[in-house]
Design goal:
The protein folds into two domains: 3-63 and 334-430, Aspartate Aminotransferase, domain 1, CATH 3.90.1150; 68-332, Aspartate Aminotransferase, domain 2, CATH 3.40.640.10. The protein is 39% helix and 17% strand. By secondary structure, the protein is an alpha/beta fold. The model has no long low-confidence stretch (mean pLDDT 97). It has a seven-stranded mixed sheet, sandwiched between helices. The structure holds pyridoxal-5'-phosphate. The site of pyridoxal-5'-phosphate has 14 residues, from α5. It catalyses: (8S)-8-amino-7-oxononanoate + S-adenosyl-L-methionine = S-adenosyl-4-methylsulfanyl-2-oxobutanoate + (7R,8S)-7,8-diammoniononanoate. One of its GO terms (biological process) is biotin biosynthetic process. Pyridoxal 5'-phosphate binds at residues 115-116, 246, 311-312. Catalyzes the transfer of the alpha-amino group from S-adenosyl-L-methionine (SAM) to 7-keto-8-aminopelargonic acid (KAPA) to form 7,8-diaminopelargonic acid (DAPA). It is the only aminotransferase known to utilize SAM as an amino donor. This is Adenosylmethionine-8-amino-7-oxononanoate aminotransferase.
Amino acid sequence: MTNRELMERDLRHIWHPCTQMKDHETLPLIPIKRGEGVWLYDFDGRRYLDAISSWWVNLFGHANPHISEAVSRQARQLEHVLLAGFTHAPAVELAEKLAHLTPRGLEKVFFADNGSSAVEVALKMSYHAHRNRGEERSLFLSLSNSYHGETLGALSVGDVELYKETYEPLLIRNIQTPVPRDTSPEASREALKALEALLAERGKEISAFIVEPLVQGAGGMHMYGAEYLRGARELTRKYGVHLIADEIMTGFGRTGTMFACEQAGITPDFMTLSKGLTGGYLPLSVVMTLDEIYGLFYCDYSEYKAFLHSHSYTGNPLACAAALATLELFERENTLEVNHTKARRMAQNLQRFLELDTVKSIRQTGMIAAVEMIDYPAQERKGLEVYRYGLEHEVLLRPLGNVIYFMPPYVITEEQIDLMMEVAYEGMKSVGRGAL
Ligand SMILES: *Cc1c(COP(=O)(O)O)cnc(C)c1O
């Protein structure tokens, strides 16, 4: 089998996610045969360093022996059982672990099977919780430039025009408040003022305020400070609005702590987790919430009070086993500690990008680093040029517009960090030459 053969068969049938399929007339698809650590290998014997953890899901490398073994052991024991009326050890153990790891107070775990569905669960639960208390709040608040997934509810609270605009007539009621423009305390203070004004005016209509804590992923790795989260926690409490921390991307060490909320010392009313949860092995997500909210649904049988939401693969045992093995690796490898050194190495490499006249700014939070190019018009697709350059030089970078970012698996070595960032540097340099 060659790359070409598999690509041709693929394009006869597969409609790829987040893709203008016509692009593949000129941009080759890359069939991957196997993975090992940070590397992906194609069918023609080429390899690619996965600088973006395959859409932010992979934490401990591809085909990680420990996680693979746990999943295969679980597959021989129990592959799936419905989670309504039944339970299984991997789900129970994972729920216990998550309740222990997440901020104090998040004791209850609702399982779903992907990030967007976790966001849907959190939105519905929030609305329903207010309703069970006799309050009707049908409006949702989110940050400008936010991303929370692609299903209709999740899309409604997102603010990336490219994904949202077309479906506007189909969305649930939503408004946005400005995200702090950078990580400075002044930026947080300004944005909190706007939030307070909005809550004072419309707080009673709003069910929940959903945020990506510290880093807005799909919105171009935009970063802001913990002060904002602390302020938002106080204000939402004051106005009886739930706070949903969408840690689907930021969770599991990406921002330098296990969860981004820890850096603000806050407990949200809901926390959504997915992506890195299973180390990038299987789709799984959870919504963590407070006993107090759980209590609003807990009563003798009465119509409409219970949370009657489900997905067929809710709490799948294989996925839970992958998640447990992933959490074991955090302990065994002392990952958060070791990552500090790696984050420092990324920071050192990042400085160099400021020499390039194609670069506007750099930023970093923990294990996420980003380089923003100058404002090239979208149709010039400069990011795509860097992507192509990366592939020719063994690095998988997948820019978000003009933002090149690095979110590697934690098994990356310091030498590999240098390589990954060197290739991006040269790629951006060559893009600049093309423009002259
Ligand atoms: C990726 C992502 C989602 C959606 O998760 P999917 O599994 O892709 O549906 C939601 N919120 C954030 C912050 C994300 O990064």
